[in-house]
Amino acid sequence: MPEVRLGSSRGTWILLTTVLGSSMAMLDSTVVNVALPRIGRDLDASLGALQWTVNAYMVTLAGLILLGGSLGDRYGRRRIFVLGVVWFAAASLLCGIAPNSVLLIAARALQGVGGALLTPGSLALIQASFHPDDRSRAVGLWSGFGGIGAAVGPFLGGWLVSGPGWRWVFLLNVPLALLCVPVALRHVPESADENAHGRFDVLGAVLGALSLALLTYALIEAQGGTAAVVVSAVLGLAAAAAFVYVERHRPDPMLPPDVFASRQFTAVNLVTLCVYAAFGGFFFLTALQLQVAVGWSPLVAGTALLPTTILMLLFSSASGALSDRTGPRLPLTVGPLLCAVAMLLMLRVGPGASYLTDVLPALLVMGAGMVTLVAPLTATVLASVDTARAGVASGINNAAARAAGLVAVAALPLLAGMGADAYRSASAFDASFNRAMPICAGVLVLGSVLAFFLVTGRPTAGCQHPERHTHCSLTAPPLEGERAGP
């Protein structure tokens, strides 16, 4: 049984290590969007290259995050976490010195591999290290500090881009890693799952990531109408079919198909695909709209996005408690509708927009919608499967959300008619943005309808409840895991 107590010096070091590690990945997901216009201008990149700057990271992260958790259980959670931090920092360094968009995109893909190793490890280290009596409080503190980091992210990203330059958005991870790794090696105990067995589903992970990459390429390059686009789409669909076949026939699949025998689990993942596709498209385009069309600096644009994160930081815990009393259907129906209203309110945001009367109302409604749905979504995922499979279910839901976001970032500019140089023209980008927001709103309404008709009942008695009560990530629902120890 783990014996580290929360009030001990070792407990403090463990919390510091896991907060630093998870903050690297969380900050990266919130600050890069703010940097995109400057990256495009400095590297003379097309809109497609900016899409890939976001999606290259998401492809490898979404495709490998389930495998990353399994590696930690088998070979040691601290070992894989430290490997992930070092890998992430090295890839961040490559991003920071990339001389062109091609090398930046390649480095972003490598960053996603590091993120897939360290992201599951942060929570797993806390669950495996702390005494059972302190574990819940430790997870709460880790989640709260991570939320503060997420809230600071857009402001920090805007300041870095406006001041030292966009490269420091990535280079900042290097000193964080230099602090995190020695502390982890000295103060964090090693742990592993003695019951972990079987072969790793490397083939499944590769096929999943490959299908996402090929389909993303087809969507981003579709306006060119070349033979490569058609070939990429066909191969992407073939890789997806092969992924399903492999997962159905492997003895230890990364994504066990029988978990979808739960109607509730399948329903909430369909809702997840809708809402996080809309969120991915919204935050990608809004960071550009505030700078390209409205004309704000990166610092002002990053700071403008803070209300959504702050609302989640303050009220996500209360939302989870409320959903325990009402059941999941109501918040999962109302939350996406509120977010859809926010998308439509964003149609007021264009050249000459006022923050107080145009931008802030939309972001406040957006934050209220996310507060309403994110915590109940996580609770419903965990409640829809056996307690022993809670970690797998949470990982699948997290990966599904990230995959939905990257597909949205690839497809939305195509659907909105954005040309390769749209972000260089305020009027052209504003017109495309005004076509994109109703599409996002429509996807959210679809998610609300699915929740109303397919999500039923209250959490099952005796199911695992979320340990993370505060959650501020805007790109995916929180990861939960099986509780380590007795």
From TrEMBL:
Keywords: Antibiotic resistance, Cell membrane, Membrane, Transmembrane, Transmembrane helix, Transport. Its main location: membrane. It is found in: Cell membrane. It comes from the Bacteria. GO terms for cellular component: plasma membrane. InterPro entries: EmrB-like, MFS, MFS_dom, MFS_trans_sf. Pfam families: MFS_1 (PF07690). The chain crosses the membrane at residues 12-36, 48-68, 80-99, 105-126, 138-162, 168-188, 200-220, 226-246, 267-290, 296-318, 330-347, 359-383, 395-416, 436-455. Residues 463-486 are annotated as: Disordered. Residues 14-459 form the Major facilitator superfamily (MFS) profile domain. It is a multi-pass membrane protein. GO terms for molecular function: transmembrane transporter activity. One of its GO terms (biological process) is response to antibiotic. This is EmrB/QacA subfamily drug resistance transporter. It comes from Streptomyces murinus.
